[in-house]
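Bumping with the actual sequence this time:
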Amino acid sequence: MTSLDGRRAYTRADLMDAYGLGLSTLEKWFRERARNGHPEPAGTVGSQLAWDAEAWDRWYAARRTAPGVPPGLATRDELAAEHGLTRHAMKTLWAERAGNGHPEVAHRAGKSLYWDRAEWAAWYAAYEKDQGSAREGEGDPEELITLADAARVLGLAQTSVTVYPKRPPAGWPEPARTEPLGGGRVRRLYRRGDILDYARLRTEG
């Protein structure tokens, strides 16, 4: 723990260690302090800004337990900052939720939407892994991939294939398996080989 004039203090490095927050998140919150009430620095330690620990802890606790919002939830902007994504990327992920399995909203407060922070992080980790393994021609033909993965294999925008299950084009394969996601939604899983067969059919056509 850093000390400043005999009082406990946090540098950004301390906050990253204590709370598991990312540097980009901390920098964003500080830039937006006029709007979010983030504490002003109490001084510097070497070349690093430092904040009074008690003041920062109080601010962060209040931020995590906003009136009427259950704990453990996060807004789109908070998730974007925590995972290094742009607001546009977040909106795209949400718009393509029928194909990528994006979690549903956990809480609404006026126009503000909140997602379960842990559920979203787990989903995004799996989504990123899928993105890395869904490139065309790679992997086991028997591997089951999501509709979003199929779009990447085909080189199509995810939004263009979300209608395929209900309005399939000629030659579009049936899913090999479906998994319930809650709220009446399902995740459709396709054999990679079937998607590659469809890709060849499109090319020949």
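The tokens above came from a reply further down the thread. The mean pLDDT is 82.
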